[in-house]
Amino acid sequence: MSKPKVFEKPIGLKDYLPHAVTKLRQIENQVLACMASWGYEQIMTPTMEYYDTVGVASATSDQKLFKLLNNRGTTLVLRSDMTAPIARVVSSLLKESQFPVRLSYHSNVFRAIEEEAGREAEFFQTGVELVGDASAEADAEVVALAIASLKAAGVERFKIAIGHVGFLNGLFGETLAGRSEEQEELKGCLLGRDYVGYREKLRTLSLEAPVQRELEGILRLRGGQEICEQALQLSSDATAQSSIRHLCEMWDVLAAYGVCEHVLIDLTMIGDFQYYTGMTFEGYAADLGFPVASGGRYDNLLKQFGRPAPATGFAIKTTRILELIGDGAGDKPEQERILIGYDVSGRAAALTEAQRLRDSEAAVIVTEKMDAAAQLTALRSAAAAANAGAGESGKVLYKGVAFTKLLTFFTDNGEQDGAAK
Amino acid sequence: MSKPKVFEKPIGLKDYLPHAVTKLRQIENQVLACMASWGYEQIMTPTMEYYDTVGVASATSDQKLFKLLNNRGTTLVLRSDMTAPIARVVSSLLKESQFPVRLSYHSNVFRAIEEEAGREAEFFQTGVELVGDASAEADAEVVALAIASLKAAGVERFKIAIGHVGFLNGLFGETLAGRSEEQEELKGCLLGRDYVGYREKLRTLSLEAPVQRELEGILRLRGGQEICEQALQLSSDATAQSSIRHLCEMWDVLAAYGVCEHVLIDLTMIGDFQYYTGMTFEGYAADLGFPVASGGRYDNLLKQFGRPAPATGFAIKTTRILELIGDGAGDKPEQERILIGYDVSGRAAALTEAQRLRDSEAAVIVTEKMDAAAQLTALRSAAAAANAGAGESGKVLYKGVAFTKLLTFFTDNGEQDGAAK
């Protein structure tokens, strides 16, 4: 509990400098515009919510919630996702709106973290919720929109892996009836993608050979539409069967959207949110070890807020995409940056010209106190360098900042409008 | 400490529904674009900061800070402004950058509130900081940019009132030397704009008649450039005199910017942030009782973060402007909203057309499970109403949502591309 140094910020939290902000804002705007074009309307909710309502309903484990007390002594949390707050809004402010309701958001969310390297305590998500539609068509719409959103964000090579909570529940319920602890252990292995651990765990369970083969077999259930056919043979459990039929229907709709090249059915997949009740999915970018999008169906959450309704949605992990697309990818053409130097007599003309240029989309910086001899000299040499074609990629450097153009308004010395370049 | 109801959110916090978000985003984008055109680059900082660094340096009183503990037991605060976090960044991540540094932000900030009507615990600010320039020119630049930003936000009628911390400090130091308690009481009256209280307080101080007149006289020091001339006569204190000369210089620069019609010198003004050291200003919109922008010079804050530098800046109270500009003002032309209904056989054609329309900037909603007879009927009657020119302002209403156009792809019944309207 040592006192922090003045320049420090708390662990797991980041500053974003202008270059990163430009990129993050670009991803945000492009993804939100994509979601708007699919009819999803943006909402915003408070950073803080009641622990007893949204905090408890969220999928985040209790020890990962940031908690604080308000003036009345009631416990608040910093939101850990946007799904539970949106469920609250749909059940209160929007309770008169007819289903289906389509909402989008871009928001920071919070997770109290152990001090592990690289974990973030605050990060951005951009996502949608489609509330009031239980159909496979609705699930396919959010998957297709996730694909369109990742493309809008500038992610080029990625796969969406789709699974179904009901398949594993049905299969395990049938083969390991009454052995809920072992079921949870196996699910834990799958959630962590620890397939070696899963096989080892299976061997310790003394299962009959056909059951053992069946449960090992699901590790191979990854691929295209053919996986659905295979899975229908694997389990006769009613829940498992209807889950697979739901995924088959989704596949047909995704085929109509023309996006199956990005889709993979992966029946070992378990969403990491406890509120998922149906299909779940994750988006993986090429060469990246962690998902850049995740989503699923949560048909039981809304009733916790008093308006029972099926719902499905996803979130893109915007901050991770920022790391992924790196420098250069999808950059807008650079704005013209103009430096205007002036002395007192040239001031009015300089500031008028600055305003004219700003109105025409350029970024203009006017220099302070240009009557100081030293600065005048600096500016003149910068101008000379620019005229001579010197400077970094033809730019004018002034006080460490690169400009595309330099204009001067020095009238005290008989000069005027000495534009360089 | 009663348990909150499921639909409740904590006091002082707001949800923003789509219509409000559209407006808020529009103000945000237009103001940030304006700031960018003046060469200010956007940064983002974390929601949480250390209490001992940024928390203590911020101008917010201790009991108005939201505090929480991290896993190590260190006290964190939710940021109460962006000025102190930016001072931290300029002194750490940006410590190699040459002055002046121009930064902008759009951010939510937090204030723990008593449960007063209408007070907000979280609200948005859009602002700039100009660090490393002590000149009147720099102060005039931020005032001129505040004016340009308010215009960009859609505020049409407003005044910026400019004062100077040094004038009142100098005047009171000269006339009420050693009576710091009385000085603070008088400043408190001015801060609250309680001019009656100020006069009453003066009368209780048993001052000599000329001094009494002098201190009453400042209440009349509101107006244009002529106020500077009058104020120079009022006090011979060196601090007061140099403060007034600084305001005179600012006025000259603001005249060159051509914005004096929006500016008022008001020497009774005291900024409500304790870190202000020089000129301070507030922006008042017509017919509104509270400021929509505030700013000032804070030359002592940066040294608390280890990189002493003069600085000046302002913040627009974005959320208040949202209330101010109301409905309709500055709205973008409405996006075309198209509803596409289809049955299973028409699905592929419908979804392909939806994608084409989304690419051409329309918002398109495709209807779920259109083979249900009831929904088919609803859609057909909506189409019929649209064809007959009925419906709200020529729009198609479907499930409570208005669309500008309806397209159907029902091929099972031998119809295709039955576009209405």
Comma- or semicolon-separated keywords:
421 residues; BirA Bifunctional Protein, domain 2; 13 helices
Task: Describe this entry's structure for a reader.
Two copies of one chain form a homodimer. With 421 residues, the first copy, chain A, is of the alpha+beta class. The first copy, chain A, has 13 helices and 17 strands. The first copy, chain A, has a nine-stranded mixed β-sheet, with helices on both faces. Chain A starts with 17 loop residues before the first helix and ends in a 12-residue tail after the last strand. Residues 389-393 and 414-421 of chain A have low confidence and may be disordered. At the A-B interface, helix 1, strand 1, strand 2, helix 2 and helix 3 of A face helix 1, strand 1, strand 2, helix 2 and helix 3 of B. Chains A, B: Pfam families: tRNA-synt_His. Chains A, B: Keywords: Amino-acid biosynthesis, Cytoplasm, Glycosyltransferase, Histidine biosynthesis, Transferase.
Secondary structure: number of strands of chain A: 17
- Helix run count of chain A: 13
Determine the structural class of chain A based on helices, strands and strand pairing.
alpha+beta
How many domains make up the coordinates of chain A?
A: 2
**Mean of pLDDT of chain A:** 87
Measured on Cα atoms, how large is the radius of gyration of chain A? 28 Å
Question: Which fold name corresponds to the CATH topology of the largest domain in chain A?
Answer: BirA Bifunctional Protein, domain 2
